[in-house]
Specification:
The chain has 8 helices and 9 strands. With about 270 residues, the protein is an alpha/beta fold. Strand 2 and strand 3 form a beta hairpin. Helix 5 packs across helix 6.
Protein backbone atom coordinates (compact mmCIF):
# COMPACT_ATOMS: atom_id res chain seq x y z
CA UNK A 1 0.00 0.00 0.00
CA UNK A 2 1.32 3.39 -0.94
CA UNK A 3 1.88 5.74 1.93
CA UNK A 4 0.49 9.23 1.50
CA UNK A 5 2.98 11.89 2.55
CA UNK A 6 1.38 15.16 3.61
CA UNK A 7 2.38 18.08 1.42
CA UNK A 8 3.35 21.11 3.51
CA UNK A 9 0.86 23.93 3.13
CA UNK A 10 2.57 27.29 2.66
CA UNK A 11 1.64 29.90 5.27
CA UNK A 12 0.72 33.25 3.73
CA UNK A 13 2.14 36.50 5.11
CA UNK A 14 0.21 37.70 8.15
CA UNK A 15 -1.08 41.27 8.54
CA UNK A 16 -2.79 42.72 11.59
CA UNK A 17 -5.20 45.64 11.44
CA UNK A 18 -5.89 47.67 14.59
CA UNK A 19 -8.99 49.69 13.79
CA UNK A 20 -12.70 50.27 14.26
CA UNK A 21 -15.61 48.34 12.79
CA UNK A 22 -17.76 49.80 10.01
CA UNK A 23 -21.18 48.16 10.21
CA UNK A 24 -21.81 49.11 6.58
CA UNK A 25 -18.77 47.09 5.47
CA UNK A 26 -17.08 49.78 3.39
CA UNK A 27 -14.31 51.03 5.66
CA UNK A 28 -12.51 50.12 8.89
CA UNK A 29 -11.79 46.53 9.85
CA UNK A 30 -14.08 45.23 7.12
CA UNK A 31 -12.30 47.12 4.34
CA UNK A 32 -8.91 46.12 5.71
CA UNK A 33 -9.68 42.40 5.75
CA UNK A 34 -11.20 42.49 2.26
CA UNK A 35 -8.10 44.26 0.96
CA UNK A 36 -5.78 41.78 2.63
CA UNK A 37 -7.66 38.89 1.06
CA UNK A 38 -7.33 40.57 -2.35
CA UNK A 39 -3.55 40.70 -1.82
CA UNK A 40 -3.32 37.06 -0.77
CA UNK A 41 -2.22 37.66 2.81
CA UNK A 42 -3.82 36.41 6.02
CA UNK A 43 -5.65 39.27 7.70
CA UNK A 44 -6.15 39.48 11.47
CA UNK A 45 -7.85 42.15 13.52
CA UNK A 46 -7.77 44.06 16.78
CA UNK A 47 -11.08 45.85 17.20
CA UNK A 48 -10.80 49.30 18.80
CA UNK A 49 -14.36 50.58 18.41
CA UNK A 50 -17.79 49.63 17.13
CA UNK A 51 -19.63 52.11 14.95
CA UNK A 52 -23.17 52.32 13.70
CA UNK A 53 -22.68 53.66 10.21
CA UNK A 54 -24.07 53.34 6.73
CA UNK A 55 -23.83 55.11 3.39
CA UNK A 56 -25.11 58.35 4.95
CA UNK A 57 -22.71 58.69 7.88
CA UNK A 58 -21.82 57.59 11.38
CA UNK A 59 -24.77 57.48 13.75
CA UNK A 60 -22.85 56.26 16.79
CA UNK A 61 -19.46 55.02 17.98
CA UNK A 62 -18.50 53.02 21.05
CA UNK A 63 -14.85 52.61 21.99
CA UNK A 64 -13.68 49.29 23.39
CA UNK A 65 -11.89 49.21 26.76
CA UNK A 66 -8.15 49.56 26.43
CA UNK A 67 -7.74 46.23 28.24
CA UNK A 68 -9.70 44.52 25.46
CA UNK A 69 -7.53 46.13 22.79
CA UNK A 70 -4.31 45.07 24.53
CA UNK A 71 -5.60 41.53 25.03
CA UNK A 72 -6.56 41.11 21.36
CA UNK A 73 -3.20 42.42 20.19
CA UNK A 74 -1.12 40.28 22.52
CA UNK A 75 -3.20 37.20 21.74
CA UNK A 76 -2.51 37.47 18.01
CA UNK A 77 1.09 38.66 18.07
CA UNK A 78 2.17 36.31 20.85
CA UNK A 79 0.89 33.16 19.14
CA UNK A 80 0.47 33.74 15.40
CA UNK A 81 2.94 36.54 14.79
CA UNK A 82 2.76 39.32 12.21
CA UNK A 83 4.75 40.53 9.22
CA UNK A 84 3.06 43.96 9.17
CA UNK A 85 0.60 46.01 11.21
CA UNK A 86 -1.84 48.66 10.01
CA UNK A 87 -3.60 51.08 12.34
CA UNK A 88 -6.84 52.93 11.67
CA UNK A 89 -9.42 54.44 13.98
CA UNK A 90 -7.92 55.12 17.42
CA UNK A 91 -10.40 57.59 18.83
CA UNK A 92 -8.99 58.50 22.25
CA UNK A 93 -5.70 59.45 23.87
CA UNK A 94 -5.64 56.30 26.01
CA UNK A 95 -6.08 54.06 22.98
CA UNK A 96 -3.43 55.91 20.98
CA UNK A 97 -0.93 55.58 23.82
CA UNK A 98 -1.69 51.89 24.40
CA UNK A 99 -1.43 50.95 20.73
CA UNK A 100 1.76 52.97 20.26
CA UNK A 101 3.33 51.09 23.17
CA UNK A 102 2.31 47.73 21.67
CA UNK A 103 3.66 48.69 18.26
CA UNK A 104 6.98 49.82 19.72
CA UNK A 105 7.47 46.29 21.05
CA UNK A 106 6.60 44.56 17.75
CA UNK A 107 9.28 43.74 15.19
CA UNK A 108 7.28 44.42 12.02
CA UNK A 109 6.67 47.36 9.69
CA UNK A 110 3.78 49.61 10.70
CA UNK A 111 1.43 51.58 8.45
CA UNK A 112 -0.33 54.36 10.36
CA UNK A 113 -3.50 55.76 8.85
CA UNK A 114 -4.20 58.66 11.25
CA UNK A 115 -7.97 58.59 10.85
CA UNK A 116 -9.43 61.95 11.86
CA UNK A 117 -12.80 62.20 10.14
CA UNK A 118 -15.05 59.86 8.18
CA UNK A 119 -15.81 60.23 4.49
CA UNK A 120 -19.03 61.97 5.56
CA UNK A 121 -17.23 64.48 7.80
CA UNK A 122 -17.96 62.77 11.12
CA UNK A 123 -15.14 63.27 13.68
CA UNK A 124 -13.40 59.99 14.62
CA UNK A 125 -10.47 61.30 16.67
CA UNK A 126 -10.77 63.26 19.91
CA UNK A 127 -8.80 66.49 20.05
CA UNK A 128 -7.11 65.22 23.21
CA UNK A 129 -5.64 62.30 21.21
CA UNK A 130 -3.78 64.46 18.71
CA UNK A 131 -0.74 64.88 20.96
CA UNK A 132 -0.39 61.11 21.28
CA UNK A 133 -0.69 60.61 17.52
CA UNK A 134 2.03 63.17 16.93
CA UNK A 135 4.42 62.18 19.71
CA UNK A 136 3.84 58.44 20.19
CA UNK A 137 2.11 56.89 17.19
CA UNK A 138 3.78 58.56 14.23
CA UNK A 139 7.31 57.92 15.57
CA UNK A 140 6.75 54.13 15.34
CA UNK A 141 5.34 54.29 11.80
CA UNK A 142 7.16 52.87 8.82
CA UNK A 143 4.70 54.74 6.61
CA UNK A 144 2.17 57.39 7.66
CA UNK A 145 -0.71 57.92 5.22
CA UNK A 146 -2.66 61.10 6.07
CA UNK A 147 -5.10 62.72 3.69
CA UNK A 148 -5.16 66.49 3.37
CA UNK A 149 -7.68 67.04 6.18
CA UNK A 150 -5.57 64.88 8.50
CA UNK A 151 -2.41 66.75 7.51
CA UNK A 152 -4.07 70.01 8.50
CA UNK A 153 -5.34 68.48 11.76
CA UNK A 154 -1.89 67.13 12.70
CA UNK A 155 0.45 69.84 11.40
CA UNK A 156 -1.57 72.96 10.61
CA UNK A 157 -0.34 72.83 7.00
CA UNK A 158 -3.17 73.40 4.55
CA UNK A 159 -2.67 72.00 1.06
CA UNK A 160 -4.50 73.82 -1.72
CA UNK A 161 -2.34 72.81 -4.69
CA UNK A 162 0.10 70.10 -5.69
CA UNK A 163 3.13 72.21 -4.83
CA UNK A 164 2.03 72.20 -1.16
CA UNK A 165 2.35 68.42 -0.87
CA UNK A 166 6.11 68.60 -0.30
CA UNK A 167 5.70 71.04 2.59
CA UNK A 168 2.99 68.85 4.09
CA UNK A 169 5.16 65.74 3.84
CA UNK A 170 8.08 67.37 5.61
CA UNK A 171 5.78 68.61 8.37
CA UNK A 172 4.54 65.05 8.93
CA UNK A 173 8.07 63.62 8.80
CA UNK A 174 9.09 65.91 11.65
CA UNK A 175 7.02 63.70 13.95
CA UNK A 176 9.19 60.70 13.18
CA UNK A 177 7.70 58.27 10.64
CA UNK A 178 10.25 56.79 8.25
CA UNK A 179 8.09 57.63 5.24
CA UNK A 180 5.17 59.98 4.68
CA UNK A 181 2.55 59.36 2.00
CA UNK A 182 0.52 62.52 1.52
CA UNK A 183 -2.66 61.68 -0.35
CA UNK A 184 -3.74 64.47 -2.65
CA UNK A 185 -7.00 62.94 -3.81
CA UNK A 186 -8.98 66.00 -2.71
CA UNK A 187 -7.05 68.29 -5.07
CA UNK A 188 -8.39 69.06 -8.56
CA UNK A 189 -6.96 67.24 -11.57
CA UNK A 190 -5.25 63.86 -11.46
CA UNK A 191 -5.18 61.97 -8.16
CA UNK A 192 -1.59 62.67 -7.12
CA UNK A 193 0.15 61.47 -3.94
CA UNK A 194 3.64 62.19 -2.67
CA UNK A 195 5.71 59.49 -0.97
CA UNK A 196 8.94 60.65 0.64
CA UNK A 197 11.40 59.84 3.39
CA UNK A 198 12.82 63.34 3.30
CA UNK A 199 15.47 62.46 0.70
CA UNK A 200 13.76 60.33 -1.93
CA UNK A 201 10.57 61.60 -3.56
CA UNK A 202 8.10 59.46 -5.46
CA UNK A 203 5.09 61.09 -7.10
CA UNK A 204 2.22 58.71 -7.74
CA UNK A 205 -0.35 59.79 -10.30
CA UNK A 206 -3.56 58.21 -11.48
CA UNK A 207 -6.47 59.49 -13.55
CA UNK A 208 -9.34 60.85 -11.51
CA UNK A 209 -12.46 58.73 -11.70
CA UNK A 210 -15.63 60.76 -11.32
CA UNK A 211 -17.27 58.28 -9.00
CA UNK A 212 -18.84 59.48 -5.76
CA UNK A 213 -18.75 56.00 -4.23
CA UNK A 214 -15.40 56.24 -2.51
CA UNK A 215 -16.16 55.15 1.06
CA UNK A 216 -13.20 53.28 2.55
CA UNK A 217 -10.52 54.67 0.25
CA UNK A 218 -8.03 55.58 2.99
CA UNK A 219 -8.42 52.32 4.91
CA UNK A 220 -8.07 50.33 1.71
CA UNK A 221 -4.92 52.18 0.60
CA UNK A 222 -3.18 51.71 3.95
CA UNK A 223 -4.18 48.04 4.23
CA UNK A 224 -2.86 47.40 0.73
CA UNK A 225 0.48 48.97 1.65
CA UNK A 226 0.71 46.82 4.77
CA UNK A 227 -0.06 43.73 2.70
CA UNK A 228 2.79 44.52 0.32
CA UNK A 229 5.23 45.12 3.15
CA UNK A 230 4.23 41.81 4.77
CA UNK A 231 4.91 40.05 1.48
CA UNK A 232 8.46 41.41 1.45
CA UNK A 233 8.13 44.42 -0.82
CA UNK A 234 10.03 47.58 0.00
CA UNK A 235 8.07 50.74 0.80
CA UNK A 236 8.23 52.21 -2.70
CA UNK A 237 7.03 48.99 -4.36
CA UNK A 238 4.31 48.40 -1.75
CA UNK A 239 2.92 51.91 -2.12
CA UNK A 240 3.01 51.69 -5.92
CA UNK A 241 1.06 48.43 -5.92
CA UNK A 242 -1.39 49.83 -3.38
CA UNK A 243 -1.96 52.94 -5.49
CA UNK A 244 -2.81 50.79 -8.50
CA UNK A 245 -5.19 48.65 -6.47
CA UNK A 246 -7.03 51.52 -4.79
CA UNK A 247 -7.38 53.38 -8.09
CA UNK A 248 -9.14 50.36 -9.56
CA UNK A 249 -11.27 50.00 -6.44
CA UNK A 250 -12.39 53.62 -6.76
CA UNK A 251 -13.15 53.22 -10.47
CA UNK A 252 -15.41 50.27 -9.65
CA UNK A 253 -17.06 51.76 -6.55
CA UNK A 254 -20.76 50.99 -6.44
CA UNK A 255 -23.92 52.51 -4.92
CA UNK A 256 -25.26 51.17 -1.63
CA UNK A 257 -28.00 52.84 0.37
CA UNK A 258 -28.94 56.46 -0.17
CA UNK A 259 -25.49 58.03 0.31
CA UNK A 260 -21.86 57.35 -0.54
CA UNK A 261 -21.20 53.75 -1.54
CA UNK A 262 -17.96 51.81 -1.02
CA UNK A 263 -14.99 51.20 -3.26
CA UNK A 264 -14.97 47.70 -4.75
CA UNK A 265 -12.38 45.57 -2.96
CA UNK A 266 -13.07 42.64 -5.31
CA UNK A 267 -12.74 44.56 -8.56
CA UNK A 268 -9.88 42.37 -9.80
CA UNK A 269 -12.00 39.25 -9.46
CA UNK A 270 -15.10 40.43 -11.30
CA UNK A 271 -15.57 39.62 -14.98
Amino acid sequence: MAISVPVPVPVPPRVLTVAGSDSGGGAGIQADLKTMLAFGVHGMSVLTAVTAQNSQGVQGAWELPVEAVRAQYRSVVGDIGVQAVKTGMLSSAVLVDAVAELLAGTDAPVVVDPVGVSKHGDPLLAASALHGVRRRLLPVATVATPNLDEVAQLTGVRVTEEADLRRAAHAVLEFGPRWALIKGGHLPGDAVDLLTDGDQEHWLRAPRHENRHTHGTGCTYAAAIASGLAAGQDVVAAVGAAKEYVTGAIAHGFPLGAGIGPVDHAWRFRG
